[in-house]
Amino acid sequence: MNITLTPEQAQIIQQKLQSGRYKTLDDLLAQAFQLLDDWEEHSLIEDPAWIDSARQKVDAAIQSLEQNGGTDGETVVNRLLEKFQQARQNQQ
Fold it and tell me: Can you give the residue ranges of every domain in the chain?
């Protein structure tokens, strides 16, 4: 079987192999196919309970925003960046 990869796909494969997590291309492909099988078997799209749960969470979030107001996206991103910077400093 011949498979043609896009340059982006080939780059991803090379990066994964160079990371050392996968010893061979066969290991990488085996993991990829296992994940694909798992995803197809447990697809969230086909899980009505997950969809209902997600809808309830979204509805609750909307209600909370309407009652309490919210924080704009830029502020949230800046806070996250600050937390990442602090965590990085703590690791050093």
Answer: 7-41, 44-91
Instruction: Report helix angle 25-41 to 7-18, nearest 10.
Output: 110
Q: In this structure, how many other beta carbons lie within 10 angstroms of the beta carbon of residue 13?
A: 16
> DSSP string covering 47-81, please?
-HHHHHHHHHHHHHHHHHHHHH----HHHHHHHHH
pLDDT digits (tens, 9 = 90+) for 39-71: 877 775 667 887 888 889 989 988 888 888 777
Whole-model pTM?
A: 0.45
Amino acid in position 92: Q
The DSSP 8-state label assigned to residue 70 in this structure reads -
